Amino acid sequence: MFLGAKLPPIRWFCLWLGCAVAAAAPAGTADAGEAVALGERVYRESCIDCHGEQGEGSDYYSIPLTGDLPPSQLATYIANTMPEGDAEACEGEDAEAVAQYLYDAFYSPFAQARNRPPRRELSRLTVRQYEQTLADLVASFLWRPEWKDNGGLTARFIRKRNVAGIGKPAKLHLPGIDFRLSELTELDESFRDPEAKTEAQFGNDRVDVHVWVSGVVRAPVTGVYEFFVQTNAGAELTINHQRVIDAGVALANGEEERARVKLLGGRVYELKLSSGRISKDDLTLRLGWRRPGGVDETIPARHLSTGNAPAIAVTEARFPPDDRSVGYVRGASISPEWHEAITNAALETTAELVEQIAELEGDREEPVTRDEARSFCEEFAARAFRRPLTDDERWRFVDRHFQSGDAADETVSPLESSLLSVLKSPRFLYPEIGYAAADAPPLQRAAGRLALALWDSLPDDQLAGAAREGWLGNPGALDQQAERMVNDRRTKAKVNEFFRHWLHLDETAELTRDPEAFPDFGPRVAADMRTSLEMLLDQVVWRGDADLRQLFLSEELFVNARLAKFLDVDAPTDAARPDTFVRAAADTRQRSGVVSHPFMLTSLAYYRDTSPIHRGVFLARHLLGRSLRPPPEAVAPIAPELAPDMTTRERVTLQTSPHQCQACHVLINDLGFTLEQFDAVGRFRSVDVGKPVDTSGGYVATDGSEVRIGDSRELAEYLANSPDVHRSFVTQLFEHLTKQPMLAYGSAVRDELSVDFRQNNFNIRRLIARAAVAAARAN
Amino acid sequence: MPLFTPHSRREFLKAAGASPALAPLLACLPSLATSAPTGRPKQRLVIVFSPNGTIPSNFWPTASAAGEPLELTPILEPLAPHRDRTLLLKGIGNQIKGDGDGHMRGIGCLLTGAELLPGNIQGGSHTPAGWSSGRSVDQEIRAFWQADPTTRTRFGSLEFGVFVPNRADTWTRMVYAGPNRPIAPIDDPYQMLAKLYGDARDRRALGSVLDSVADDFERVRTLVGDEDRRLLDDHAAMVRSMERQLAADTAMAELDHAVPELEPGVVETNDNMPRISRMQIELMVNSFACDFARVATLQYTRSVGQARMRWLDVEEGHHELSHRPDSDADAVAKLTRINRWYCEEVAHLATRLAETPETDGTGSMLDNTLVVWTNELGKGNSHTHKDVPFVLIGGAARDGWAVRGGRAIGYDNTPHNRLLMWLAEACGLSLNSFGNADYCSDGTLTGLS
Predict the structure, then answer these.
(1) Fewest Cβ atoms nearer than 10 Å: which of A530, A653, B69, B146?
(2) In Å, how far is B340's CA from the nearest CA of chain A?
(3) pTM value?
């Protein structure tokens, strides 16, 4: 196969018929009436046999006629290709009339929404929501950690002779753990050199140095993190209060220990590492990780801070992935595997709560009393159901389990069965059922929905308190809460997952390139590119003024020494710390924002050559929000080897020249070609197979407007101001937050959010808060 | 305090290789619970460790080093019910040299008979050291029995602990699967129960709530429209199906054997040592009855263990007391009480084994099980490895250990490697040496049967 498995299978996605704003048919005139009649007549005569009464399809052609091409492009397509086998039978006025007819009757998103209005479906918690909710439910009984964001860990050094401490310990703030003890010049000589001591002080004994590292580590995304410790001594590593590396006794046959730990994104985890110089060998110590989809690296300072954190409940249960067929993850279906997973997670959580209840009830040693256990269960159920319990629920979920007076008669403890029944209840698993079942006060429902939309989780104390005390109903109170909550790490983590999907960040792990063509490209550079893009997103969305347009227009590039060299960018990097990223000006006027970010350009390219089709489809689908469909047949691209004199542009043009392809590939190619000045690893180029690169392209918007785009810079400027991009961004972000189709909330919600977004300088953080509030307020 | 300690049940289940809650009920599958009957009795080995040496004057018989019948000294008195089945070995020492302080070599070489590897664990004296360079004899026997289908069991061996500090270092590990491969004892009886019966417990808890969960679905289904109700009905059907499956499994499980009940909520604190000790002993006897394993170790605290036996009116830590001179009568009295308490636990284990008949009619469990009670030192304040206590109880069956009890044997400064060889050979393993071969030239220890 020519298409590498590393790329999304574009060849199944030719643009078939493409989103539109509601372009109302000309109405009220005789001509308009006649045109509609003509269109309907043509449709009935020439189209209905294959496409069905309402474009639903037939046995012969089953794909429904829905899409987002403007009527003008639809007409061109019909004139060129329809009816099948006799394309000349429907042209000109006929083609325009039938295009307008089907556009208004059933084809356009507007018509679709009118004919079959989407509704909010009953949804269970998604896997992410379940994991986050469970973690917060347990954490709500504990103290909250503080993220000091001071970019490093505390390392304490203690000198010892045998087991006895000597002198004062030393304390350092280290941006990461990767050192040789003798080279830590901040330390006194007696720490660094085992011989550097006076006999009068310590006699003939050797002086050992023990190292204790502590702090917290932040997990940017949910997944399995592989931690590793490299040392010539022994080491113990504790993450999230679990000792994951237990090699206090140095192994004779290895200098590295690894451990895999599942962490939930958007949370901070306590980290402790101990090691030491015993005997005269110098101590080397490195603490690294491999993030999900990443490479081995010393844990970077930006994910570290000093401080402590309570243990976070991370379930070990294995869930099947959620449905993502509509573009966002949702909980609209269940399966036996899912049911088994939530059952296992409930059992696991229950067992741990039973084990730890004394600590949850105030950090003490003696067992809790039956009454304390009962009231714990009541509070637990109320938090799980996101509202106060009804009398009936208090009986069913709590008191009933505690009614037997004699503990000795119970084969299952009341605590255990109460907690389990809460965690298995539809009132917990389906938040909307939870509200309906209690006829929940609107404020508690709004609070629950707000937390679910922003955090995939439960309301925190402040939000729950505002609902309970009623002032959440005050004008603006919900907005204030949302604005507060947007800055929480949990919102960042959830929105970062949106960007990961939006920008294909998930598909980077195995980026490979032809080592002959790109000898200096490797997994480390690929990982640097991803980090660079993540930092750009972080800068624009979370640190700057959050203007969506800056995602396209920013002329900054985050690079470390390695990436700067690879891209040949001038940057103030520190040669001594080649992994540390700095902000630099992008190298060329052509490069700006995410679209011409080296990571995007590389991930949307082949093993050796660029792929204007991948880039174009990405721009069309993800950024401009155009709907794409499988093509009528799969097509393999022309291999570059078969046409060595042709530029990529020429090959793609030739390949997609048939009429059948053209209707769609005009759109894809014209977008993708504008990025041809960047090669398969995102470096700037001006020639392709010896010919000057042609970056001219263009775009026809869903409202029918046309624009010529000369190069990547013009593309970025167009995208920054494109209504298609704005609408698509609002819709996709809303659906990511709420897990429901946006139109199910009514077109007024969409329009209000879009207008507000535009009027507020396309502020993404504001949009997030407004979208969550809109979902929380819905009836 | 951490919410989830490293010894959490989940981590434990993972470490034990047990699968999530709904995996098949391994414990109840007869094919795994018992081996094929062979007509031979189930020979078993239990090694019990208590730390910090003994008080020789109150431990060894006074009249002479050897003797018959066995004289029960103040420390050994609790073994009175089993006097005829008790064999005391004097004059056996741990002669292994090399890196590590006395306590480290005391426990690390006790069952391995081999030196410690160079390492980075520094004690209060001597050189630093690492793990042992050999496999411990219990694991040697385990491997031998597991390789034979007629003696293979579900776990092979079980490593019990009582109040073992939660850290992995040379002082806390006695059992080694091989060089550099220590095996951690499980000192939480609930974790041990989960290892033995984890599935069953989860199933019981689940079984108790599924009916009300299904009932809950009935109540809420009317709250949604027809289109959404299908999702809830599908979910409810899964709950019912799980309920039926559990009922069927439980009925099958009950045909097998009962799951032991543990007193709930006993937390791992110093003061709970006596209760935890008894819980662990019950679990051990139960696991033998189910033939889950034929080798077990029971490690009280660790070498240098600092138990404070307040229940014996001893406020000081055990190790600290053990350093006091022989002239300190108070310390001697307290240390005697401490060692006697350990002896009571060993005697209780022997009693429980004696009370439990073998299901195949080959006598009592104590007939087939040899309990070896030992220590990492001969004496605490001298840290000597000479005259390390070795008390053998049970194992009288002729076609098993064939130990002749009711006496003491005096050896002359004999390396303990020869005793380890005897243990292995009595199980049918033929060895030329065990651990460091330099200490094995005189062959296996004789005179025990």
Answers:
(1) B69
(2) 29
(3) 0.81
Radius of gyration, alpha carbons of chain A: 30
Q: Is the dihedral of CA B112, B116, B117, B122 positive or negative?
A: positive
Residue B392's SS3 state is strand
Q: Are A127 and A333 in contact (CB under 8 A)?
A: no
Output the tens digit of pLDDT for each of chain B's 449 residues: 233 333 344 443 443 333 333 333 333 333 333 444 556 889 999 999 999 999 999 999 976 556 678 899 999 999 999 999 999 999 999 999 999 999 999 999 999 999 999 888 888 778 888 899 999 999 999 999 999 999 999 889 999 999 998 888 899 999 999 998 899 899 989 888 888 877 677 888 888 899 999 999 999 999 999 889 999 999 999 999 888 888 877 666 655 556 777 887 787 888 999 999 999 999 999 999 989 999 999 999 999 999 999 999 999 999 999 999 999 999 999 999 999 999 999 999 999 999 999 988 889 999 999 999 999 999 999 999 999 999 999 999 999 999 999 999 999 999 999 999 999 999 999 899 999 999 999 999 999 98
Chain A residues 80-139 with a CB less than 8 Å from chain B: 119, 121-122, 124, 138
DSSP characters for A345-379? HHHHHHHHHHHHHHHHTTS-SSPPPHHHHHHHHHH
- Chain A residues 562-621 with CB within 8 Å of chain B: none
Task: Name residue B162's beta-bridge partners.
Answer: B300
| Residue B260 burial by Cβ neighbours in a 10 Å radius (0-12, 13-18, 19+) | middle
Helix %, strand %, coil % for chain A, to 5? 45, 15, 40
- Round to whole Å and give the CA distance between A754 and A732: 12
Element of type H or E holding A485: helix A477-486
Enumerate residues 136 to 175 of chain A having a beta carbon within 8 A of any beta carbon in chain B: 138, 142, 160, 162-164
Could you give the maximum distance between any two Cα atoms of chain B, in Å?
A: 91
User: Which residues, in sequence order, are CB contacts of A328 under 8 Å at separation 6+?
Assistant: A732, A735, A736, A739
